Every structure is written in structure tokens, then in C-alpha cells.
Amino acid sequence: MTVDRPLLQVNKAGIQFGGLKAVSEFSMEIKQGELIGLIGPNGAGKTTCFNLLTGVYVPTEGEIIFNGERLNGLPPYKVTQKGISRTFQNIRLFKDLSVLDNVKVAYHSLAKHSILSSIFRLPAHFAGEREMEEKAIEFLKIFQLDKLKDELAKNLPYGQQRRLEIARALAAGPKLLLLDEPAAGMNPQETHELMELIAFIREKFNLTILLIEHDMKLVMGICERIYVLDHGQLIAVGTPEEIRNHPKVIEAYLGEEVGDDHA
Ligand SMILES: Nc1ncnc2c1ncn2[C@@H]1O[C@H](COP(=O)(O)OP(=O)(O)OP(=O)(O)O)[C@@H](O)[C@H]1O
């Protein structure tokens, strides 16, 4: 399934906030279909990398090439349109909207019907709405949230909110999905189910996935390659086995467990 061409290429990208180089000379190459992990101790710069990739921050150095196009300077919504979707470390849902509407909002940008037909409520609008709703329910079924479609997002337990956020990110039709600590706050059973779900959606939607995760069992269990950041710098890239035994990684995590449990 993996095709031999980089979908994402990051060349020595970085960003400085005042005097602080939050990330510097960060390079990464991800091929279509890969499932890659991004790890590092607290404050290493992982979320900042996601913010650079998604247009939240404009890099002060280097470049980001996605699908052959330079992304530097594009606003987040354009980056999404280009095919990069994400979830957030602190879940960001429309908490007072229903589960179904949370997914429809994301799907809306892809809907075929025009604004004009929506305003005049032409038949195409209703066909578009119906199509959108059916599609949204399909996504919810994959995440076993379809029976909760009318529930307000804020009423869902934490693990389900995390799954809903992934469903919404997927509904935007990404080629590359960025997951920021998808297992945070989940119990071991939920984490195990999430691992299976990530593997499943990757196959089903022919996705490329980059995930930040502190749960080493999850990272080591599903990622093919892992990038390790420390103090804003890349200190290692390799297979889970290589990373587990990498002296710089062990040093960076000194006092923490880079084994099977939480880091
Ligand atoms: N907008 C900003 N302004 C100033 N400093 C920032 C900004 N965003 C991030 N930083 C700093 O950049 C560094 C990296 O932060 P980042 O959140 O990317 O780390 P992280 O690896 O995701 O950490 P964690 O695992 O704790 O979430 C930190 O020192 C942080 O304070």
C-alpha cells in the first residue's frame, strides 16, 4: 500500500519566539501510507511542529512541502483544503453542537452544493444536505458514535470525545492526518481500541498518519518509524527498535521509561 514518494517533506524548518528557538532545523520525510510517530519529553517542540505543518505558525526558517506544493505562509483552512487535518492535544469540539453536526461542519467545505442553492433552498441544496448527513453518519459508524448522533458533544465521555474529534478530522478528507496525543486521558482498554481504530482507518482511507503520543506502548506498537525531538531539535529517527535503544533518546528521557508504558 505504501507508495515510494514523499507526501510530506520538511526541510530544516523552525520557529523562534522572541529569544526562544522552539523548533530548529527540523527535517522530516513521510511517504504516502506511512504511520509515523513524533515523540519527545515535555516542551520538546512536538505541538509546535504540528502548528508549523498546519499553518498555525509560519516557519521563520526552512520550508514545508506537501504533495509537491510549498505550504509556508498558507493559513490553516487552506492547509486543510490541501489535505492535512489534525486533532488537538486539548480536544477542540463544538461542545454545544450535536455529535452529528460536529462532523457535518467539517464535511461542509467538501459539499458539492453551492451557496446560492443553499440560500434559495433549491433541490440541489437538499440533495447536498442529505448526502452530507449520510456521509457524516458513515463516519460516525466507523467510530461507533452513530447511536449518539443527536447527543451534544459536551455530554460524551472523554474517550468518545477524542474519537469524535478524529471522525471530524477525517470528514475533511485528508491525505495526511495529524493526531496530537490521541490516547491522552484514555484508559488501557480505550487505548487498545484506539490503536486498532487508527490502523483500520489508515487502511480504509489510504491515509498517511503522523502522531504525537506519550503512550510508548501505542507509539512502539503501531508506528513504522519514529522521530524524536528534544529541546526543539531532532535527536533521532528510526524504527521503534532503534529508538528504544538509541543512547540520545535514553538520555533525553532519563528518569522516564522508554519501554512499554507511559513516557
Ligand atoms: N506561541 C508561543 N510563544 C512562545 N513560546 C511558545 C509558543 N508555542 C510554543 N512555545 C514554546 O515552545 C516550546 C515547545 O512547546 P511545545 O508545546 O511544542 O512542546 P511539546 O513537545 O508539544 O510539549 P508537551 O509534550 O508538553 O505538549 C516550549 O518551550 C513552549 O513554551
UniProtKB/TrEMBL annotation:
Pfam families: ABC_tran, BCA_ABC_TP_C
One annotated Gene Ontology cellular component of this protein: plasma membrane
Transmembrane segments: none
GO molecular function list: ATP binding; ATP hydrolysis activity; L-isoleucine transmembrane transporter activity; L-phenylalanine transmembrane transporter activity; L-valine transmembrane transporter activity
A GO biological process held by the record: L-alanine transport
InterPro entries: AAA+_ATPase, ABC_AA/LPS_Transport, ABC_transporter-like_ATP-bd, BCA_ABC_TP_C, P-loop_NTPase
Domain ABC transporter, first and last residues per copy: 8-256
SUPFAM superfamilies associated with the record: P-loop containing nucleoside triphosphate hydrolases
CDD domains, A to Z: ABC_Mj1267_LivG_branched
Keywords associated with the record: ATP-binding, Nucleotide-binding, Transport
Xref: PANTHER family: AMINO ACID ABC TRANSPORTER ATP-BINDING PROTEIN (PTHR45772:SF7), CONSERVED COMPONENT OF ABC TRANSPORTER FOR NATURAL AMINO ACIDS-RELATED (PTHR45772)
Protein's name according to its UniProt entry: ABC transporter ATP-binding protein
Organism for this UniProt entry: Calidifontibacillus erzurumensis
